[in-house]
Amino acid sequence: MIKKCLFPAAGYGTRFLPATKAMPKEMLPILTKPLIQYGVEEAMDAGCDVMSIITGRGKRAITDHFDISYELEHQIQGSSKEKMLADIRHIIDQCTFTYTRQNEMKGLGDAIFKGKVLVGEENPFAVILADDLCVNPDGDGILTQMVKLYEKYKCCIVACMEVPKEEVHKYGVIEGNRIEEGVYMVSNMVEKPDNDKAPSNLAVIGRYVLTPDIFDVIQNTKPGKNGELQITDSLCSQAKKGMVIAYKFKGRRFDCGSVDGFVEATNYFYDLEKKKAE
Ligand code: G1P
């Protein structure tokens, strides 16, 4: 049912300058794999086979990454390096990639709205923010967990996690009633509230399942925090109608949009590889 996944990837990645001056932040590697490839693999595991990427100026490397590189493949054919391209080749063979540009940085709500032309208005779709790198070593990936939950509730779902009170100002924060273990019916959402004004410490992280009626809602949403169109505000309108679920996912999330989170993720995956090799 959920076959399409949207990847807003037009942001500048200023926290990683100068590395991101000429290179998209989504292409920063954790070990040998770019961040966005982790996201695409998570979406594939959840059953998606159309990856719709919202790009911008200077993001061509993403398009090239998800395309065949004949020269390179020819060059390393038959060598021990060939297997290093096996995963990405598999992705390219299994998925369709579609792209559009967000020409102006007008917020995540605007980026998602730009994706309307790619994901259409017939079916629910997923959204992954690639700099939130999510893993669940004990079972289903985070998006798979959410897709399964969608089958039960058939409404918008946001992934959330508890964060320390002094960090809530970095996130969209939800207020809601627990309806089952780890699942909340959302009644209110606030984008990056002051720490002392947040309705809870349940922070939204970069995984969403959205129903296509969200596009009309975005169109009627006014710019919010930082003068940008915030998906949190559009989802808040839906939440007031009882149409948004927050899900405390099983697994771990690395904030790879920050240097600390990026290094943490690198160490995590490095240790994992080491253990595999033992
Ligand atoms: C975005 C969303 C925010 C969410 C966060 C998760 O913010 O606007 O609601 O909590 O992603 O990473 P950003 O980090 O892009 O500023």
TrEMBL record:
GO terms for molecular function: UTP:glucose-1-phosphate uridylyltransferase activity. It comes from the Bacteria. Coiled coil: none annotated. PANTHER family: UTP--GLUCOSE-1-PHOSPHATE URIDYLYLTRANSFERASE. NCBIfam families: galU. May play a role in stationary phase survival. This is UTP--glucose-1-phosphate uridylyltransferase. It comes from Halarcobacter anaerophilus.
